[in-house]
Structure formats: C-alpha cells, structure tokens
Amino acid sequence: xxxxxxxxxxxxxxxxxxxxxxxxxxxxxxxxxxxxxxxxxxxxxxxxxxxxxxxxxxxxxxxxxxxxxxxxxxxxxxxxxxxxxxxxxxxxxxxxxxxxxxxxxxxxxxxxxxxxxxxxxxxxxx
Length: 126
Hints:
Elements: H1 8-19, H2 36-51, H3 70-92, H4 100-111, H5 115-125
Helix pairs in contact: 1-3, 1-4, 2-3, 4-5
C-alpha cells in the first residue's frame, strides 16, 4: 500500500479488516456495561489512551513503507488506529458482521461530511 497510488485506501481497509481481532474479549471491562452505546464509549476512552491517540501520536505505525516521510507514517498510523477502533466498536455495538469494509467506509464518509457518498454506501450495505 502506497499513499497517492490508486486503491491505497481500499488496500488499507481490506488489510485492516482481514487482520482485525476485536480488542473486546469477554473479560473486557466494557462487557459489564448495559447498553451497546455505553460499551462503545467506555471502550473508546480506554483505547484512545492505550493507542496513544489521546496524546496525539499512535503507538503502532506498522505497514509503513521504508523511507516514507514522517507525516505519511503518522497519517497511516492514525488511519489504521481509527479503523481498528471502528471495527472494535462495531463488535461492541452488535453491528451485522458483514460487510465490514463498507461499514468502515460509511463511518469515514459520514465523519468527513461526504453525505452523498455515505448515503450510497448505506444503500449498498442495505
């Protein structure tokens, strides 16, 4: 995956969803909370601290190209962390199990105010 080349986002999302192992085990503290929303919020608070995003720098920059610019490495690390968070929250929220890539794209489109694209993705998922 190389930023700027066609298909880089699709490759990143495909890789992230394939590798995804929910950080939400049965023993996770969030499991004891009542609603899916409460579980997701508690999880988000915990993972933002543990990933380093709360402080501005993610801990994991895996998959970055050797010799890549520092800002590219940071961008990809932040994007990977946000995708992992979205996938974990989907598990906590009991979202339908598939299609995860489209679900993540829907969240990204909605968060970047691309409502027309978000609506298209929602129709595709439905």
